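can u pls check wat happens w/ tryptophan
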Amino acid sequence: MSQNREQWGSKIGFILAASGSAVGIGNIWKYPSIAGENGGGAFTIVYLACILIVGLSIVVAEFVIGRKTQLSPVGAFEQLAPKTNWKWVGYLGVAAAFVILSFYGVVGGWILKYIVDSFSGGFIELSGNTKAAEATFNSFITSTLSPLIYQIIFMGLCIFVIIKGVKGGIEKWSKIMMPLIVVLLGALAIRGMTLDGGMAGISFLFNPRFEDLTASAIVLALGHSFFTVSLGMGTMITYGSYLNKKQNLVTSALWVIFLDTAIALLAGVAIFTTVFALGADPAQGPGLIFVILPSIFPQIAGGTVWATMFFVLLFMAALTSAISILEVVTAYFIDQKGWSRKKATVQFGGIITIVGVFCSLSLGAEVIDGNGQDVGHGINLTGFLGMSFFDFMDKLSAKYMLPIGGMLTAIFILKKWGLTNYMSELKIGMDKMDLSSLLVRALLTISASIVAFIIFNEIYFQITGKALIG
Ligand code: TRP
């Protein structure tokens, strides 16, 4: 363990950084759109249960491994299980970071473009016209150059923050941006609730419609509970490695999960109250943010300001998540290869940006014109992958890499490191709390089993075309 490893400046700084990682596009874009489509409150109940069982136990596990070893994932597994293959769980995490950040950076770029558009009044001509908003969005993301420019700016900002290090970069910016996200989202939620008919959005989001809660929605809730708290690739191991021994890791994890969930629910309220007040289609799925919102914001008083606020807060959420992904890669090269922070960040931030360029270009590969002709101009790998490279990277990480990483982390503690060792590190900093190791074992076992089932279900589906559930 190096004497001069960087450390968080304060407890609150650490909690804001870790929840900054957790709160991202997943909370503000994905949660509302999948909850809306899958039974509203019924989905939310399942999601909350998943977060409390699986999410909480694995966040704590990652914090414990990081704080114990003071190393990022590869080094951490190597230290706790020397000369075994467990370090591959760490490598899987670094690889997942590459995969996720490559497409996350592209979406980050879209958000920047939507800030510019909303601020400059570009949504006004889309007012009330979903078709036009959809055409605008599609033509932007499938075009060649302009999404790349925004993506490169977004990735440049990530690199800028990460070069400044743990305290001067990640912690500093999380402390600024996280409170702003809450304030802006709170204002949007209040605005939404006070619109005529806005309250119907709340009942849509929270009234349980169990008839819409299919088995596949349950699987979706589980998968999402992983992604939304940034699990399975060592983000929380890395953030935990900058901690000293004074913190209570269980309360810290509870804070992260609470903030993550609260912000997802608040985003749902802000979005659906507005959608319902203006009579738009709530079950739009992915189009909710980039298509529906631009077409309805101009219809409310001060719409330009509200729309800009929304995309600015979405940008801040995306940035505090993206930096946590880049930090996993940077920390690997610092800890294991002895590189300087600057060299690691610039080189690998650059490489990830280039992979992201391919993700972005893959979206323009198939553009069918009015005569059914493919006039696409991007990079077409669809024949080879069965989907665009962008979707491939998304599915590869969310469906396989993260769940596998999270499951192996739980198994590692139960089978390799041992519960006794785990509990003795976990208890440091927990003076007033008592935790039964039986409960911890049960939670880790349940989490690993649930996740194993999901992975198996997905692989079974890929092979046979039929899922066991879902
Ligand atoms: N949790 C973030 C979101 O909800 C995304 C994210 C950041 C992430 N770091 C991660 C997901 C690590 C998985 C693993 O958008």
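The chain has a mean pLDDT of 91.
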